[in-house]
Amino acid sequence: MRTVISLVAAVLGLSVLSPLAPAGAASSGVSRMLLTPTSDPSTSQYVSWSRRSATSGQRVVAVARDGTTLTVPARRKLGTSTRTAGSRQYRYYARLSGLAPSTRYRYRIVGKGFASAWREFTTAGGASQTFRLLQFGDTQIDNDAVPERIIDRATRQHPEARLLLQAGDVVNKPWVGREWSELARALTPSGQRSNWISSIGNHEQCRLTSPCRSGTGRGFRSYFQFPSNGYPEQRRTWFFVDRGPARIIVLDTFGKDLKRQSAFLANALRTNRRAWSIVLMHSGPFASRGDRKNTEMRRWFLPVMERYDADLVLSGHDHSYARGRKAGVTYLTSVSGPKYYDSSSKDWKRGGATRVKSAYRTSTYQVVTVTPTKLAVRAVVGHRGKGAKPSSKVGSTLDSFTLTR
């Protein structure tokens, strides 16, 4: 294997690094590397990264264990600006295609005079292959503190989880560069070996926050890469990804096109041939904060979820933990940072749902095991704020349930 790689490297004019080579992103000028999925992560993969200056001739090299090598030129994407994201970053991505399912690849970014360290990702399996994902709620503030510790704990405990979901509000003030730097640290190293999916929140696009500037979510749209499903007039921040026995549908709940998203959601649910439908959205149909009424979410999305049999809906926004059901659909709201709101069942009752589990000032991450016949969810305590209820210890299971076919 090493001989094959050496020969390939010689042809490409590259140096050969072992998987444990100390050369890092800082020495290569490559930063903020992130894996995000295409619509079919069993055969393709997005890799994106930042540089401080515009650089031509970059490419991603991926090598399978059998020596099969793929080299893909980089494409420049929307960058960030000092005004809307606090720093000027030139953002690049590459789409690796024609990959083999359930296969481990070593990859790195190369260019004139530099090469990043080797990293690894593993492609998804087929439609019936069991897999595990981790899900996080709002992080929003101090990403390099509580959220980073929660993400690190979760990914260390579950290194087999190659898909990581986050329910929006990845930063608090999108025009502050330090917050994006803290986010990048929180998503390292997990974001270089596992796929991250985040639903855009209200803070990233200056909704319900003032004064604020974001260039219509430019930092978020620059940092993450989004798959296209070929839906008419589809926007970048709503899409779906098929992995194993599940279709994960991502919505932009503070977008100005909720009617169009509702139709997209209906189509995604109706055409799903996988065993499970999981919806990821920043603001769920039922608010867990006592002074909120999530009537717009119920108006546009609830009837669709019920009619076309969504299974699990994951959300954030309310900075507390709550789980409930309505018309056969399970709804779960969580927080994965140190900012908390009160916990109330008022809006759940107002919307005709039953809240069956809740927690106050308790941050969690969710471990979701997906098989063709079961969807098992376990909420693990990642952090406890002052006055947290119930008195669950960090690392313990706060809540668990299983959906079956």
Automatic annotation (TrEMBL):
Listed Polar residues bias regions: 393-405
Ranges for region Disordered: 384-405
InterPro entries listed in its UniProt record: Calcineurin-like_PHP (IPR004843), Metallo-depent_PP-like (IPR029052), PAPs-like (IPR039331), PAPs_N (IPR015914), Purple_acid_Pase-like_N (IPR008963)
Purple acid phosphatase N-terminal domain: residues covered: 33-123
Ranges of residues in domain Calcineurin-like phosphoesterase: 131-321
Source organism of this protein record: Aeromicrobium duanguangcaii
Keyword Signal found: yes
Keyword Iron: no
Signal peptide: 1-23
Organism superkingdom: Bacteria
Keywords, in A-Z order: Signal
Name of the protein in question: Metallophosphoesterase family protein
